[in-house]
Give the backbone structure.
Amino acid sequence: MQRASDAEIATALQTLPGWKLESGVLARALQFADFRAAFGFMTQVALLCEKQDHHPDWTNVYNRVEIRLSTHDAGGITRRDFKLAQAINEINKP
């Protein structure tokens, strides 16, 4: 998988609400009503990640989830990361 160019990343970010470029990765911070809601979201994302065989770097503290996406094998952001970010946004629709 080939790394995305700066222009590709900028274009993709326009279609990925909530995501930003941070230290060379796609990053998003989410806040939920409580731990149960945050963990439920993470469970849904984990199942999706297994299907895509693409796993995020993420943290959870009580009701907050922080996600960082990059393709380690490619050494940066690729189309796989854009695809996963979009799918995560679909899970987190209001």
About this structure: The chain has a mean pLDDT of 95.
